[in-house]
Amino acid sequence: MAMNSGAELPGSGTGPGSGGADVPAEDERLACGRMLSEVWEAWEDGADDPARDPHLRACPHCSAAVRQLDLLGAAVREAGGGREPEWDAGALTERVMDVVRLELRPGRPLPLGEREEDLWVREAMAAKALRAAAETVPGVRAGSCRIRPAESGGSPSRGPVRVRLEVVVPLTPRLRDLAEEVRRRVRGAADDALGLPVDHVDVHITDVTDPAGADPGGVGAEEGNQP
Amino acid sequence: MPGDDGLLAVRAAEGDEDAFEALVRRHAPGLLRLAASMLGSPAEAEDAVQDAFVSAWRRLPEFRGQSAFATWMHRIVVNRCLNMLRSRRPVTDLDSVPEPAAPDHSVSPVRAAESHAAAVALGRSLSELSPEQRVCWVLRELEGQSYETIAETVGISAEAARGRVFRARRCLTEAMTAWR
Fold it and tell me: Which residues form the RNA polymerase sigma factor 70 region 4 type domain (chain B) (predicted)?
């Protein structure tokens, strides 16, 4: 212990350049001539395989050094093995979300209804509804959903909006039809559920998943966009 | 479903708090375990992870998905723990050793008492390490991370990370050998 306490001041050696001083200051040459750090490293890398370095296995000093690490490993398993097997994250989640709900990021206001009305919805709320609509198409998962005034003018403008939605879709030979179906449902939700006049819905397919549950296809982004 | 994290993180960055809640639920248990082994105290681990998530919510709009959400979160928690350990130094208070594991009733009482004592001894020697040594050691020993990953997370060189893990092991093996 004593070798540690004086050697490193709290907070010292955190900069990228300070590594050099930290390396083998407390290394030890074993009676066989090997450095302790080398022996432990070899053990860690699995190089204590006798075929690769017969000395490590045969040497009593090296084996004693490795046994120390094994002892430590056993103590770690005993101490931590059964501890907090399953953290209950429920209470923590509630506390985090209490703070989050005080710090919402609702986004810009978007116009609802007719031009002369004074009814607005926040982008984050509208986006939630549109993502949910996209996900009514089986297998589709929605990511980014940005909603902007279609005509850039005075802010906030009351014109129709333009939706840009990113989706991950199941692998199908009819990607274009699928994208079209997503667009139709998003438009439907905007019209009927929200009353948000939409000028344009861009659907961007950012990934394709294998419906069999295998790994995602990871094909590049395919774009289906038309009014 | 780690592939889903990316979608949820994008949604959360755009202000969807439900997506963020799903991420918190998914990642909190692992992060709590990590923080507890770094801090040695379940209560402090909860504080660290809670602060880390709140800070993640605030920083999400700048999170561009250069790394996986889990990696990003992991890094925030490690740094939070490192700061907590630093502000805690110097620790001489022996009462601050972690609570030992509850005895496992499937093993004999003698054995349980022994592993209890081993846990206390280990906890005590862990609390004597420097914050950087402790964090590097936990990432290496308990999380099985490469020295390169540890270096990146902690913001030091891989050589320095290697040196810290080595020192931590020296301290801990000496303490455990003495204890046995």
Answer: 121-172
- The residues, ordered by sequence, that sit 6+ positions from B15 with a Cβ below 8 Å of its Cβ are A104, A105, A106, A107, A123, A124, A127
Give per-residue pLDDT as tens, A55-69. Answer: 888 899 999 999 888
Question: Are residues A114 and A216 both part of a single domain?
Answer: yes
Question: B27 with B33: CB under 8 angstroms?
Answer: no
pLDDT at residue B23, as a whole number: 97
CATH number of the domain to which A180 belongs: 3.30.70.1350
**Residue A77, token pair as written in the block:** 């398993």
Q: Are residue A145 and residue A37 in the same domain, yes or no? A: no
Tell me which residue range forms the domain holding A136. Answer: 109-225
Residue A63 lies in a domain: yes
Cα nearest neighbour of B160 on chain A? A19
In tens, the pLDDT along A169-192 reads: 999 999 999 999 999 999 999 999
Provide the chain A residues 47-106 that lie in CB contact (below 8 A) with chain B: 68-69, 71-72, 75-76, 78-84, 86-87, 89, 92-93, 95-97, 99-101, 103-106
Chain B residues inside the 8 Å CB shell of A15: 156
Q: Taking the complete model, does pTM exceed 0.90, yes or no? A: no
- What dihedral angle (degrees, nearest 10) is formed by the CA atoms of A70, A73, A79, A82? -110
Domains of chain B and any CATH numbers: 1-91 (1.10.1740.10), 95-180 (1.10.10.10)
State whether A65 and A139 are in the same domain. Answer: no
Q: Model confidence over A207-221: pLDDT tens digits?
A: 999 866 544 444 444
